[in-house]
Amino acid sequence: MRKKQIIYDSPVDALVALAKRLSVYETQYRMESEEFFDQYSKGQKEDTLDFVEWSNNYQHYLEMKLEIERQLRHAA
Length: 76
Known about the structure:
The protein has helices spanning 11-29, 33-41, 49-75.
């Protein structure tokens, strides 16, 4: 599988894009990302392509959100 690199104008744009991707999974599987990730991390979900991507997207979302929060605290 070939990876595609997407470049965003700002970290906030990247966070919004990740949130939209997470929303698609949440709608499809009728489960919040936080709940899914908890179950997936405990081995209660299989390693399907969707679940691996969802997990990766959620982890990336959390990292981006934390970094933006750090930057905002530093700027204040």
